[in-house]
Amino acid sequence: MTPNTPDAQRRKRLQNMPTKKIRVLIAKPGLDGHDRGAKVIARALRDAGMEVIYTGLRQTPEMIASAAVQEDVDVIGLSILSGAHNTICPQLMNLLHEKGMDDVTVLVGGIIPGADIPALKQAGIAEIFLPGTSTQAIVDFIQKKHAA
User: Fold this and answer.
1) Rounded to an integer, what distance in angstroms lies between the CA atom of residue 46 and that of residue 29?
2) For the residues 98-124, what does the mean pLDDT come to?
3) How many independent structural domains does the chain possess?
4) What CATH number does residue 104 fall under?
């Protein structure tokens, strides 16, 4: 039986990591100034072996799309608590399409009413993570989506 030490846990995580690092852009669009959750997710993804770029607060869809192109990311994670998801997400998806980045996985986390989820998924959002979702569930989703 393998000991359950931090070092053994780290070795196990490293064995399960893909060989190419998944590049993730974490963005906080809109006027919402609460970024603690975005920072927690960024750290969890980094600890899972992903390369994480955090853009900071008050990003426009244009700024996020430009950063995604410049950083050549695989995943974009949006943290939205302001209620502007129905405006911001379709704008971002259109910009990504215009820039030829249709292969980028876009995720949304935050306060999203259940009634809004189908339209967001129809717009191209791969998954929506609501409050209470574990960081491991997000890591697992990204790793499964981008398995080598």
Assistant:
1) 21
2) 96
3) 1
4) 3.40.50.280
The residue count for the chain:
148
Residue 5 belongs to a domain: no
Task: Strands of the chain (E only): list them.
Answer: 23-27, 51-54, 75-80, 105-110, 127-129
State the maximum Cα–Cα separation within the chain, in Å, rounded to a whole number: 52
Long-range contacts of 11-17 (CB under 8 A, 24+ apart): 13/48, 13/49, 14/49, 16/143, 17/48, 17/49
Average pLDDT score over the chain:
91
Tokens of 4: 């359950």
Specify whether the CB–CB gap between 106 and 29 falls below 8 A: no
Q: Identify whether the C-beta of residue 77 lies closer than 8 Å to the C-beta of residue 28.
A: no
Domain coverage including residue 74: 27-112+126-145
Q: What is the per-residue pLDDT across 18-57, written as a single tens digit (0 to 9) for each?
A: 568 999 999 999 887 888 999 999 999 999 999 999 998 9
φ, ψ of residue 107 to 5 degrees: the values are -120, 150
pTM of the full structure:
0.85
